[in-house]
Amino acid sequence: MDQIIGLVTQYTDNRHEDDFIDRLNFQYTSYGFVLSALIIGYNTYFGTAISCWTPAEFKRGWVEYTRDYCLIENTYYVPLEDPNMPPERYREERELTYYQWVQFILVFLAFLFYLPYLYWSTVNWWSGLQVKAVVDAACKLNKTDVKSRQDQIEKIASHLKKHIDRQGRKSPIPFIPNAIGRNWVSFNYVLTKSLFVINLLAQMVLIHNSYLEHYIGLRVGFGSNWIANGIFPRQTMCDFEVRKKGSIQKYSVQCVLSMNMLNEKIFLALFYWLLALLLLTIWNLVSSFEHFFRVSSRKAFVSRMLSAGGHGATDDDTGSQSDEKEPLVERPTNYSNDYNRIISVNSDIVVVLHLISKNAGDNVCQSVVNVLFKKLSEKSQ
Asked: For residue range 219-241, what is the model confidence (pLDDT) as tens digits?
C-alpha cells in the first residue's frame, strides 16, 4: 500500500522539470481522462447503464437477468427506420463491442499522455546536468533567511559552472552523436514536446477516424452523426436464450443504453479539449525550438537576466556607442570577454535557466545568472 501511495505521490507532485504547457499535457489532461473513466465506470457498474423492454411474462428476477446479460454481452444496433430485424448471421457484425471497455480505454489514453514526460524525466540528467535537482533547489529557496538563500544560489551557480567547464567537442554520453550529446538536455526537451504533439494527433485520429473501429468504433468531432451511424445509439437490440423445461426459448428485446448519453458528452468534450491543447502545444514547441536553438534568442534571454543585475553590454559588445551611464564600480579589463562568454552559453544551460524562470520566477533566475557571471569572471582573472 505504501508503494502505491508513493507512486501516486511521485506522479502528482510537481517535479519542476517542465513548464505549464507540459503539465497541461501529462498531468491535467491525464487527470481529466481518469476522472472521465471513473464517472463512466461508476455509471456502468453502480448506476443504470442499460434498461431493457422485456415481455410481460418476465418477473423481476428475469428482468434483472436480462439487463445484466445484455450489459455484459454485446447489443447490436438496428436503425429505428428499419422495421425488419437483420438475419442472425449479420447481427454479430452490428454488435457494439466498445461500451464495456470505454473506461479502460480512457485510462490507457491517460497513460499515453504520461509516457513523453516519463522519457524526459528519465534521460534529462544523463549528460551530468542535474535538471530536476537544480530547478527544484531554485523553487525551494529560503525566503526569510538571506544567507541561506544566497548559499543555495551559490550551489546552483556552481553546478552550472561545472557543466560549462566540462563542455567540449565530444559528447559526454557514450554512443551518442556529438551534435546531440553536447546539447543533450535541450534536444530531449524539444523532443519531449514533439512527442506530446504526436500523442495528441494520434489520439484525435483514434477518436475521430475510428482507428480501432472493430474494437471501439468511436467517431466524434467534425462531420459525425452519432444517431445515424450508430456510434452512441440510445436504443439497441439484445438476443439471449432461456432454458425452459428442456427446451431453449430465444428472445430479442429492445434496450435503452442511457450510458451512451454520458459517453457522447464526455467524448465530445475530450475531443475539443485535445484540439485546443494541440494548438497550444504546437505553439509551445515552435517557440521553444526558437528559444533554445537560435543563438540570438539565447543571447537575448541571458542578456535580459544579466541586465536586471546591472551587468549590461559594453560598447565593444554591442558594436555601437552606448548611451548607458558610466558604472559606479569600475569594470575589469576583461569584462567584455566574460560578458560574451556568459551570454554564449549553450542551449542546455538556457533550458535550465528557462525552467528556473518558469517555475521559480524571473527574480530567482536573475540571481542565479548574476552569480554564475561572477564565478565565470573570477576564473578568467
From this structure: 555 445 555 555 677 788 888 88
Q: Which residue has the higher pLDDT, 51 or 169?
A: 51
Q: Tell me the domains of the chain and their CATH numbers.
A: 1-129+162-216+224-294 (1.20.1440)
Angle at 381 between CA 349 and CA 164, to 5 degrees: 15
Distance of CA 63 to the CA centre of its chain: 45
Which residues does 304 contact at the CB level (< 8 Å), separation at least 6? Answer: none
Element (H, E) at 238: strand 235-244
* Residues contacting 166, CB < 8 A, separation 6+: 128, 172
pTM above threshold 0.85: no
The DSSP secondary-structure symbol of 74 reads: P
Using CB atoms within 10 A of its CB, is residue 330 exposed (0-12), middle (13-18) or buried (19+)?
exposed
CB contact at 8 A, 136 and 130? no
CB-based contacts of 184, cutoff 8 Å, min separation 6 = 123, 124, 126, 127, 129, 171, 172, 173, 176, 348
